[in-house]
Design brief:
2 copies of one chain form a homodimer. The first copy, chain A, is α/β, with parallel strands linked by helices. The first copy, chain A, is 38% helix and 25% strand. The first copy, chain A, has 2 domains: 158 residues, Molybdenum Cofactor Biosythetic Enzyme, Chain A, CATH 3.40.980.10; 82 residues, 2-Layer Sandwich (Alpha-Beta Plaits). Chains A, B: Pfam families: FLAD1_M (PF24102), MoCF_biosynth (PF00994).
Chain lengths: 253, 253
């Protein structure tokens, strides 16, 4: 089975000015990982039509699926729908189903601004949302979802079951108290030997308070292989005498 | 004074698989905002040479400054230095100053893996780091820094004072309890009127527990203008009768 790939576009000035911390990208990364879909690239862009258009066109060509977050609400700074429409040379129209959903909920309060949330590009299909009713949509391979995390989660929950998934990647991790440089040679050899089998080995030094740990992660679509590679890593580390036994920050690497 | 622009590249498989949450991008966004440098775009890419090379080449052409995070340690998955060198067609050499720094700290423990951290592309200059000593570097307009947050912060602290900054953007925000759609028309008009003066107005509905708030943000390099625009917004909202007085999630938009 061919592995499916994905890209992600987080849209919004508030993220790039540091005003708001995005959490949707890492949520998406975890959900895609669990689904066996490989997230290859993520981009953060401003609420500027040309920036959104370029990112959508580039990523939708490169990857099987593209997920966007943000900019589909009722205010002036919500320009994602029109930008996606422009990217695909499609006009925007008032979708009947979306209109009905909003009419049922809002009744007389369905003003012009709310009606904007029922407009999608020709060729698009709705993504339903049980949290606030206003739908997202997908067009070709681009899934256009809200930025508010609870709504993003709900929309992704609607979308994911319908996608073609790959075999799940197993991820095994172990914590060590060796400086990264001491295990580099041994780990590099093992990583090189198994790269052709699609095994990805990562080495992540992390600071915890004033001390540090080293996390080694083995990822593979074959769980037995991942386990045997991790065992080989542990055996090779057992012979290593650490160049530092201090656990301070200076001996992290 | 011409405004300086920036791009950001977060490098690492661990981010794109959701294993690790990146915090460097939002830290950088805040620091650049405080410095008056506009962060225009951020990308997350894998530890794959071609992916890093493409991102570096594209962003270094588009923006005044590019900041990278991750992949400059001693292990096999740290391929940022070689990738940046490849992007700029430069060979990598053992920098004397970096070598001396590492030698002084590590002494006899300065093995081949640690020596890798003293190698930088020709034409690069060091970025010092008082946390773990191993330096980052910059080449042309690309600032190559570590992924471990404490080290990234230290390196950015070395770099920022040396950059050309713009006038600081003032950001004024107010919380309202109106659904986003009710203020859309009034806010859209004001945003349209002041866009030519470089005023950026954002509208951010947020969920807090089971309730919600609406945050309006006005950003401008002229603080007096930002304040007067916010006053105009508040005055225009005062006349609005909310279509919902419920504060539940359904009336967020």
């Amino acid at each position: 089975m061919k592995v499916k790939t994905a890209g992600c576009i987080i849209i919004g000035n508030e993220i790039l000015t540091g005003k708001t911390k995005d959490s949707n990208m890492s949520y998406l990364a975890i959900e895609l990982f669990k689904s066996g879909i490989d997230l290859i690239e993520a981009r953060h862009v401003r609420d500027i039509e040309q920036d959104i258009v370029s990112a959508v066109l580039e990523l939708s060509k490169k990857y099987d699926y593209v997920f966007t977050s943000g900019g589909i609400g009722p205010t002036h700074d919500d320009i994602t729908t029109q930008s996606i429409a422009k990217a695909f040379n499609a006009d925007v129209y008032l979708d009947e189903k979306a209109h009905a959903i909003l009419k049922e909920y809002y009744g007389d309060a369905l003003n012009e601004a709310r009606l904007k949330m029922a407009k999608i590009p020709y060729g698009a299909e709705l993504i339903f949302n049980h949290v606030t009713q206003a739908p997202g949509f997908y067009i070709k391979n681009v899934y256009v979802m809200a930025g508010v995390p609870k709504i993003f989660h709900a929309m992704l929950g609607e979308v994911l079951p319908k996608l073609q998934k790959g075999s799940i990647i197993s991820s095994i991790s172990e914590i060590f108290h060796l400086p990264e440089a001491d295990i580099a040679k041994s780990l590099g050899k093992i990583a090189y030997n198994y790269a052709k089998d699609g095994v990805d080995i990562g080495s992540y030094p992390k600071i915890e308070g004033d001390s540090w740990i080293l996390e080694i992660v083995v990822r593979s679509r074959d769980i037995n292989l991942a386990e045997s590679v991790m065992n080989e890593i542990k055996a090779s580390f057992a012979e290593i005498k650490p160049s530092f036994d201090k656990k301070d920050l200076m001996s992290l690497l």
